[in-house]
């Protein structure tokens, strides 16, 4: 009998506005047996989203973690911060459909959420979908290859 595949390692981070939703997601992931690497923040005291989105992206890009989850008030700022890290494809999702399509079509490796936009219950559903959806490749690969080429060109 073969070993069951291990669950992916997850980097998670949020600013103050995303903190309550991040905590709900973290608790769900830990209870479900995922290894979670919490990059902060640890309260609702005002902080800058880039100080948490970038470390999530760095952990995923360096392969310390398999996926990232980043939460700020809208999900916009923290997704921009994570996307500044080469190799990161952070996708802002607002519902289960956009979370699924982020993985299927874009091979997103960081899920960005808005803590003031979605409920904790909806966020957990979106995380479940994101983590259990496979990239379909095919016609979508051409687009990802173009993104990778842009990143390589910028590093020259």
Fold and architecture overview:
The protein is α/β, with parallel strands linked by helices and 156 residues long. It has 6 helices and 5 strands, in the order βαβαβαβαβαα. The protein has helices spanning 19-31, 50-61, 76-83, 96-106, 120-132, 139-155; strands at residues 10-14, 36-38, 67-72, 90-92, 110-114. The chain has a 5-stranded parallel β-sheet, sandwiched between helices. α2 crosses α3 (76-83) and α4 runs parallel beside α5 (120-132). The chain is globular, with a radius of gyration of 15 Å. 39% of the residues are buried. The mean pLDDT is 95.
**Element order, helices and strands?**
EHEHEHEHEHH
**Low-pLDDT sequence parts:** none
Secondary-structure-based class equals alpha/beta
Q: Output the number of helix runs.
A: 6
User: What integer value in Å does the Rg equal?
Assistant: 15 Å
Shape from CA axes? globular
What portion of residues is helical? 40-55%
Number of strands: 5
Largest sheet: 5 strands, parallel
The rounded distance between the terminal residues' Cα atoms is 48 Å
Main sheet strand line-up: 2-1-3-5-4
Fraction of residues in β-strands? 5-15%
**Mean pLDDT score:** 95
Structural key phrases:
6 helices, alpha/beta, 156 residues
Short summary:
By secondary structure, this protein is an alpha/beta fold.
What is the strand and helix layout of this fold?
Layout: E1 10-14, H1 19-31, E2 36-38, H2 50-61, E3 67-72, H3 76-83, E4 90-92, H4 96-106, E5 110-114, H5 120-132, H6 139-155
Parallel strand pairs: 1-2, 1-3, 3-5, 4-5
Helix pairs in contact: 1-5, 2-3, 4-5
């Amino acid at each position: 009998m073969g070993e069951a595949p291990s669950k992916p390692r997850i980097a998670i981070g949020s600013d103050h506005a995303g903190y309550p939703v991040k905590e709900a997601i973290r608790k769900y992931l830990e209870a479900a047996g995922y290894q979670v690497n919490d990059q902060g923040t640890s309260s609702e005291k005002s902080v800058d989203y880039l100080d948490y989105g970038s470390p999530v992206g760095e952990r995923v890009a360096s392969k310390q973690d398999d996926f990232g989850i980043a939460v700020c008030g809208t999900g916009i700022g923290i997704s921009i911060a994570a996307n500044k890290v080469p190799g990161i494809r952070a996708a802002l999702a607002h519902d289960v459909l956009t979370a699924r399509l982020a993985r299927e079509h874009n091979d997103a490796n960081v899920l960005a959420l808005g803590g003031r936009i979605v409920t904790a219950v909806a966020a957990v559903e979106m995380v479940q979908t994101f983590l259990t959806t496979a990239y379909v490749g095919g016609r979508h690969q051409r687009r990802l290859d173009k993104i990778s080429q842009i990143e390589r060109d910028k590093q020259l």
